[in-house]
Amino acid sequence: MPSQNYQFSIGQNYDLSKQVDRKIGFVGSVSYRNTQNIDNIAGIRRGNWQINSTPDDPENVNTGNLYNFNTTLGAILNGGYRDGNHKVTLNNFYSRVFSEQLERITGWNYSNPKDDGFSKHPVIKEDDRPVFTDLLQNKVSGEHLFGRLKLDWTAARVAVNTLETDGVSAMLAPEEMANKVIYKYLPGQGSAGGGMLERGKYVYKERNLTAGMSAAIDFNIGKQKQVFKTGLFYLDRHANYDWTILPVVSFVAVNNPYGYIPIQDWGNYMDMKNPTTDILYMPSSFHLNRYEGKDVNKAVYAMFDNRIVDKLRLVWGARYEYFRYDSIQNSTNMQNRPAITLQDSVRWKFLPSAHLTYTPITNLNLRFSYAKTAVRPSLMDNSRFSRYNTNLGRMQVNLGLESSVIDNYDLKLEWFPGAGDIISVGGFYKYFDKPAEFYAVNEVSGTDNLYVYTNNSNWGKIKGLEFEVRKSLGFIYPASILKEITISGNLTLLKSEVESRVLRYKTDKEGKQYSFYEYMKYKRPLYGQVPVVVNGGLSYVGKHIGMNLVYNYMGYKTSITGVDPNLVEYERPRSQLDAQVSYRFYRNKAQFKFNMSNLTDSPYQFYINDASTFEIKNANPPVNSEWNDVYKYKFGFTDKFEEGYVDSSKGIGQQIGDRQTLTRYLGRSFSLSLSYNF
Description:
mainly beta
């Protein structure tokens, strides 16, 4: 699909004095971008869609498209003042985005799989989300030098307003008529709680206030320069989320006529002149509700930059951080859903760090570092709002997220053989306390495998190796075109171990319900981590012509996790090839760029190790068991994707192998741009 991108920028500096260095300046920019694309969903077997394939019936597939439309307007206006010892900067950014995504899937439901009777024909599910997003950011910052003392300060405000107006979710029912199949929009059957057709309005507003100040002073110990720095940080966030969800229903139980009336004409039947047959909105209390929350993050920190000897440098310090989240109003929009399990009770955290660099020769560094960091959840991560996620194909339910604390250890050897060149090798180890992951469950409704929880795992461990190279080919023959060609690449290898957890509920002898966590150790990639990443590039930069070729490969990745292995979803390896050709002309003030993306049209593919690929070897495992203590793979199967085979021993073909849950093609993209500097 076509796309457009326009940008105009202008800037200027002005001297305020001819005797001293004193200047003011500004830069402004406006931009417009429009993109349209269609993602092809070649197959989906997840969420509320039929999950089991039928090899004897190749027409039993769930397919569809995602139609994406996006228009972005942006503006930047920055200004500043600078003299010899002082600098003050104003930064202002505004953007307005309209994005609309329409998902249209044709297939069979989990609860009504394909058959020769009532479910002979597929249904159609539509989900349309038109969203307007306004972002305004204002920031003022300053730098001041008083002899050896340097002061830095900043203050910022960010406001985000998101309006989704008339979001529609609909299920179209098939009907045979005159030797063909028609699809009908139908209202629900007069019961609150949702149904065949819903309209919704969703309004999200968030305001962030940020302030910080730091002071640094340098001094000497012997002949070595030292730096001490200390500072304060403050972040205040406040958010509101209001929703209005309107199920469209009627009380006509038999021979409902509205399927034969164009949906745009339904408004003519909503005046309630005939209450028993008219169409009406029938929301429950949880359809008209809201969320409001706030949090505060404050910190004080101090650090030293110590040059111990000429070849040894130590940067070390600590951050003492306070975090508090408050839920002002936290309503739900579901009839049955679990409670928020937020337990982030440790408000003060001590976060030390140290970075040691040894430079035995000028262009060689050996680095070792340790840092403890904390990742805070967003405000909406702790709301009780739940909604269908088109990317996951399921309802996404928030259970509340605790802060994740990470211990990072890194060791790296770097060699810089020439300007812009690097060859490095390194290793790392990370320990995650309460990492956030997506958990698949099928217990909320008791029937369909519909839900994904956002929740914390108990812990995660990652260890890995990194290799990087970037080298000009000019060393082969300096006085040739080879000096303008650069090769680059990096390789990351890692292993993970995760202890997953799921909140369970039981009732004691007195009838009181209590909750507990069930744990399971997995030797799998932590959510978002990839065990193998390969990037390679070849670039040429000439006087007028430039060329760039980039190859990326990502190995197996965990997409959705869970305690039940039949619910854990992985993303299969994917590679992508991109290229760019550029040409400079008109005294190098103008430039054409031709970009080509995803030239091999590689799809995103997801799968689950189906229950047919493993068996239970211990039905009563001990507490905190590992996966191998409870399950084992059948012959010919591993946690990697294996399509398997068709078993026809029972008369009906049954697929024995991993289940492909989603195959999504984004297609190739090509763009041509022109820029001119004056």
